[in-house]
């Protein structure tokens, strides 16, 4: 089996929760996309990152069923692990910075795959939602404290690959931030935390805590 690390990205303040991410540091040893896709499916994480060049920050991202030009929690995790000023993805160059306990990336909303952003009246409604059948990718959210920018969210990928709900999804948070036009403090899944902030010229920063699981 190929060596890989497991990170948890967008952890809570106590270090719990977060979305697991597989990282193959020596991605150059698996150059073929088909082989990468096969390994990502075998590992079963919502996303797996292959590091093609650790010094340049060049990475390649896969779900269990498809290759992604960009994804939020893989980029935050890779930024923390590689500690480089930027990441190189098929979508474009992703700025990165470390700020105390948080790792931040800067990306563009148009890089994110399509998502259905569905607002609910209360956090309790979001908490009570059943997992929908496979189909559209739904980001269900509600305000917990609109004045403070606090949001409750859950993410349902709508894929038939065994991943019914994503614990923390940076790309969906990116789209929601762009739509609302303000900084957000999102609690997603069972307790993961995602911070976001709009930037000049349409960019958005996404930040979170990262822990090396194994």
TrEMBL record:
<dbReference type="InterPro" id="IPR003719">
    <property type="entry name" value="Phenazine_PhzF-like"/>
</dbReference>
<protein>
    <submittedName>
        <fullName>PhzF family phenazine biosynthesis protein</fullName>
    </submittedName>
</protein>
<dbReference type="Pfam" id="PF02567">
    <property type="entry name" value="PhzC-PhzF"/>
</dbReference>
């Amino acid at each position: 089996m190929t060596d890989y690390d497991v990170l948890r990205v967008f952890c809570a303040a106590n270090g719990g929760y977060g979305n697991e991410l597989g990282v193959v540091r020596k991605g150059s040893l698996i150059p073929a996309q088909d082989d990468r896709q096969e390994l990502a499916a075998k590992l079963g994480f919502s996303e797996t990152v292959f590091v093609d060049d650790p010094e340049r920050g060049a990475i390649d991202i896969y779900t269990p069923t498809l290759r992604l030009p960009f994804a939020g929690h893989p980029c935050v995790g890779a930024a923390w692990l590689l500690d480089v000023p930027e990441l190189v993805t098929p979508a474009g160059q992703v700025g990165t910075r470390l700020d105390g306990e948080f790792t931040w990336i800067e990306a563009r909303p148009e890089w994110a795959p399509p998502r259905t952003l569905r607002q609910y009246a209360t956090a309790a409604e979001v908490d009570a939602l059943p997992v929908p059948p496979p189909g559209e990718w739904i980001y269900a959210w509600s305000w917990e404290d609109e004045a403070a920018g606090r949001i409750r969210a859950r993410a349902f990928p709508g894929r038939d690959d065994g991943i019914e709900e994503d614990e923390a999804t940076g790309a969906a948070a990116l789209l929601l931030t762009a739509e609302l036009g303000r900084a957000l403090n999102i609690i997603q899944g069972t307790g993961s935390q995602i911070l976001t902030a709009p930037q000049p010229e349409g960019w958005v920063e996404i930040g979170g805590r990262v822990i090396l699981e194994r």
